[in-house]
Write a structure and sequence with these properties.
- The chain has 21 helices and 14 strands.
- α17 crosses α21 and α20 packs across α21.
- By secondary structure, the chain is of the alpha/beta class.
- A hairpin with a 2-residue loop joins β8 and β9.
- It folds into two domains: about 250 residues, P-loop containing nucleotide triphosphate hydrolases (Rossmann fold, 3-Layer(aba) Sandwich); about 220 residues, no CATH class.
- The protein has a five-stranded parallel beta sheet. A three-stranded antiparallel beta sheet has the order 12-14-13.
- The chain is elongated.
């Protein structure tokens, strides 16, 4: 039906053959239809096709409430919001109803009285699917009135009702989500009494407002998100609520660098408005940025309970592109090509997203970030075939061991950088042999040279100071305690 032909009265709705169904049956039916037609259930969600998505599908087919457990930056909120696509395009409600009363089965006292008064001429409105999704971020200051509702003295005074009358209620978010989806992010942050209110709704359909018990069997699909650290019997979740949630589904970070790169490429804002300055990101630069996140997720100096969000590589890539864009604007280059040294310009995007353990606090966020950048470059260079050019690498190392120094400012144009790299024997040969450059593009050739040098820094075969100058490897300094690869850059 089009909007113009939709039934607008209760009698017309009955005549149309409309049959009510619960929200869980509605979601289940639309899910079955999508599965049968081969539609992608969660577009834009990468890396969950064989893990998280099948578990969500099973929970919805089982008509269960569920919770997504995972660390920050694991697309929990995005998944929850996409559940809206499993709702009908629109549904009928009684006109003026605050809780989406079904015209054929009114739930509220307002809805029942409206039907008694108007009969088959009762006016009907239609609600779009987006209006049937209600989301709340749980914080300690959320009250029971926010979620369930409260008595409205003004309603009581204007209507001449007793305060115990259901018509005096100002409904909270949960009743207003009736016949829809109610999502709570960071569930354990809700106060205990509000959690009690939730599981009463889930199990018995009872609510209490200002001490007045009201039977209100809401038809709601409840979806939650939480950090696994908090979602335990020893944490901030009450056991009866935990017991009433049908499925606990664990999310995760990308399981491969390629999956992470796909997410970062999808989410990062890298194609800028300068039509005359196209952005060309070397694949190995994008890979190095992604490997920073993977290394951080296994570094014992970083708090793994907080996690390393997927927003880390996204913001690094955006900052690296911005630094390359700034250089291109200053030097008059016709192409924006981020290079490995541009990743160092993104240090604020790294340090601001790392929660450090005690040992990490001693080392310092900037030092750890620099180590991660160099180590990521080394792993990327190895993945691109770095072991296939040992002779040329020895030439490069020998140049610096004999006292050679190479320093190029971060605003040096690509062509000037390539001229500087030509002074290092074997360096451009490596770039050519491993296809790190794109034809004769100065930007890509310069980026390839920097990848080689950064990998040698990571292996402590050459050194790099804070100003970006490469030189002879510094003698190793003893390290006490710690874990993983540690060195000075």
């Amino acid at each position: 039906m089009t909007a113009a032909t939709l039934p607008r009265t209760l009698g017309a709705l009955r005549a149309s053959g409309y049959q009510p169904r619960s929200i869980k049956d509605e979601v289940r039916a639309n899910l079955i239809r999508k599965l049968g037609s081969g539609d992608r259930l969660f577009p834009g969600i990468v890396g969950y096709d064989d893990t998280v998505v099948p578990q969500i599908v099973n929970a919805l087919l089982s008509r269960q409430h569920f919770i997504l457990l995972g660390l920050r930056g694991q697309a929990k909120s995005r998944i929850v919001r996409q559940l809206v696509d499993l709702l009908d395009e629109r549904i009928p409600i009684l006109q003026g109803s605050e809780i989406n009363d079904d015209p054929l089965r009114p739930l509220s006292k307002y809805g029942r009285l409206l039907v008694e008064e108007h009969g088959e001429d009762t006016p009907v409105d239609w609600v779009e699917r987006d209006a049937r999704f209600v989301e709340k971020l749980a914080t300690p200051d959320v009250t029971i009135a926010d979620i369930i509702g409260d008595v409205d003295p003004i309603k009581a005074a204007r209507g001449g009702h007793l305060l115990s009358d259901e018509l005096t209620i100002h409904y909270g978010l949960l009743p207003r989500a009736n016949r829809g989806i109610f999502a709570v992010n960071e569930l354990p942050d809700l106060a205990g009494k509000i959690q009690v209110g939730l599981f009463n709704i889930m199990q018995e359909g009872d609510i209490q407002i200002k001490g007045y018990p009201i039977r209100l069997p809401l038809d709601v699909l409840l979806v939650f998100t939480a950090n696994p650290e908090d979602y335990t019997a020893r944490g901030k979740i009450i056991t009866p609520l935990k017991d009433r949630i049908g499925a606990e589904i664990m999310t995760h970070y990308p399981e491969s660098v390629q999956a992470g790169m796909a997410i970062t490429a999808q989410e990062a804002w890298v194609q800028r408005a300068h039509a005359e300055l196209p952005v060309s990101i070397p694949d190995y630069v994008a890979e190095s940025i992604e490997r920073i996140a993977f290394l951080a997720r296994s570094d014992k100096r970083i708090d793994q309970r907080s996690g390393v969000s997927q927003r880390l590589p996204i913001t690094i890539l955006e900052n690296a592109v911005s630094n390359a864009e700034r250089r291109a604007l200053l030097t008059g280059e016709r192409e924006v090509v981020p290079r490995p040294t541009d990743i160092y310009a993104a240090l604020p995007a790294i340090t601001g997203k790392l929660e450090l353990e005690y040992e990490g606090e001693l080392a310092g966020a900037h030092r750890i970030a620099r180590e991660l950048i160099a180590r990521a470059a080394a792993e990327t260079f190895a993945a691109w075939g770095g072991e296939a050019v040992p002779a040329q690498l020895e030439e490069v190392v020998d140049y610096f061991e004999r006292g050679g120094v190479l320093q190029l400012g971060e605003t040096a144009a690509a062509a000037a950088a390539v001229q500087g790299f030509e002074l290092v024997p074997g360096l451009l040969d490596i770039v050519t042999e491993l296809a790190l450059g794109r034809g004769e593009s100065p930007g890509h050739r310069a980026a390839g040279c920097e990848l080689v040098l950064e990998s040698l820094v990571a292996e402590r075969r050459i050194s790099r100071n804070d100003e970006g100058a490469y030189g002879r490897a510094a003698p190793p300094r003893p390290k006490h305690g710690g874990s993983g690869l540690q060195f000075d850059v």
